[in-house]
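Just curious. Invent one:
>
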Amino acid sequence: MIVALRALGVGDLATAVPALRALRAAYPDRELVLAAPAWLAPLVELVGGVDRVLPTAGLDRLTRPGAAVEVAVNLHGRGPDSHRLLATVGPHRLLAFANAEAGHLDGPAWDDDEHEVARWCRLLAAYGIAADPTDLDLRRPATTSLPTGVTVLHPGSKVPAKRWPPGRYAALARTLTARGHRVVLTGSARERDPVARVAAEAGLPAEAVFAGRTDVAELAALVAGARLVVSGDTGVAHLATGYRTPSVVLFGPVPPSRWGPPPERRRHRVLWAGGGAWPDWDGVGSHPTMAALDLDQVLAAVDEVERAVRADRAVAA
């Protein structure tokens, strides 16, 4: 049995897809178990190759998977806590970044500035397992109950610093609606009220608010069939990459060089105002790097993405 640990969220799972597929290819006859939150299981099915999810919320406890663990793979972090957690299942071998505190010295060194996709591919390469960092596409969900051709705006983020000002999302929704887009707003159950306020300010009907109304598979289906996605650096952006759905992703304070979509994919655009000196953030409202992105910049990026889509269609025709 092979056990990989990635007990995080949607975007974290999406960026580990190439590594998980590489493990499947390297161990075709072994059961591949992913230690991850149980609610992610429907999305794990869309990755393919993973035999089952071992429900794991954070790093407090890892249930024994029920059989001998030949190889444990730390796709979660640098350690020591994640290394030690995997040690509790008694693996014969641990594939992980070097961490002296955890007593693991044979892995590669951690690089803070590395792109998240490249990081896990490099880890596996250090152990002789080839991974393709461009292998990011996800399977399409079977559900057909959600609208297609919509423009998805995702105002929220579990990290407050990564949120674009809600009033600008409302202005964007109004402008895109005037251009003929059918705009819907997504978010978690906890974000339903603030997302509903954005919808009200934008003049959108209540049925345009999908926040709290979709599970992770339904959210994936909504993104997979969308005309366009606009969001911050959060899980929805990575779903758009996985489905090659045209997207505009607003970054701050973390740069796109660490979490952005592949630059060679023309249907994705990133906006980033970081890299300079910024005033200290008091934790209220949007981070200065996000507040620096204005509506005109986002609309210009939307235009660029839609031109790229038209160009792709012309070539295909």
